[in-house]
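Bumping my old thread because nobody answered last time. Still need a sequence for this structure:
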């Protein structure tokens, strides 16, 4: 099995983190998105969306980080990470769907991406307009995550870590690039620190930290 990814890709990070954490035998192949390799004919033939990450398992190709985490957990029998009991699995699916849509639709595309990626920045007044739209909605999403999704629980599905935590924490920590202050959300901050304490974190986040360093002098709008 092979994972096509890039270590700075926000949606690749959950896969790299989970694979390292669980010591899965998955070959990692970097697709240099900074050089446009994801637009090459060879890669586009595998993923017409021209995006990373992508799993190749024999003749089977799979895109979308959420689906890929579920596939890896099922393939390797990691029922603690992705329960088979109906309601427990439904809760994991619910959290991952919420992160992927209700949370990251606003947080990624109306807050983080327009400020750090040139291809997502708008011209003139449109840039401020999209941030004016995104900031209050992101603030509300963080409140929901802090107060209701996490609440008094250490992990997003309760007392035990699941693939939903690997997926969600990598999306939430994208906010570190624009210096979101998580101290205003103590349950989120504690959860992030809990996930960062896992032995696989440092090894899979060097590029993430490097990008944070490159953006350190820029000013950003945050919730």
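Sorry it took so long. Here it is:
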């Amino acid at each position: 099995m092979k994972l096509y990814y890039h270590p700075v890709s926000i949606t690749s990070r959950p896969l790299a983190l989970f694979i390292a954490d669980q010591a899965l035998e998955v070959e990692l192949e970097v697709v240099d998105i900074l050089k446009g390799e994801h637009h090459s004919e060879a890669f586009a033939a595998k993923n017409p969306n021209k995006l990373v990450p992508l799993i190749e398992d024999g003749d089977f190709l799979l895109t979308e980080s959420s689906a890929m985490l579920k596939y890896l957990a099922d393939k390797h029998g990691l029922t603690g990470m992705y329960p088979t009991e109906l309601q427990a699995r439904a809760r994991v699916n619910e959290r991952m769907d919420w992160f992927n849509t209700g949370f990251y639709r606003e947080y990624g595309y109306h807050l983080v991406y327009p400020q750090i990626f040139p291809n997502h920045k708008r011209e003139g007044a449109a840039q401020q307009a999209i941030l004016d739209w995104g900031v209050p909605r992101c603030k509300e999403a963080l409140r929901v995550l802090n107060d209701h999704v996490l609440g008094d629980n250490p992990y997003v599905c309760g007392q035990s870590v699941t693939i939903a935590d690997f997926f969600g924490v990598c999306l939430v920590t994208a906010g570190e690039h624009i210096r979101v202050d998580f101290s205003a959300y103590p349950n989120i901050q504690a959860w992030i620190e809990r996930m960062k304490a896992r032995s696989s974190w440092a090894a899979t986040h060097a590029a993430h930290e490097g990008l944070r360093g490159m953006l350190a002098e820029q000013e950003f709008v945050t919730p």
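The beta strands are 2-5, 27-30, 54-57, 60-63. Let me know if any region looks off to you.
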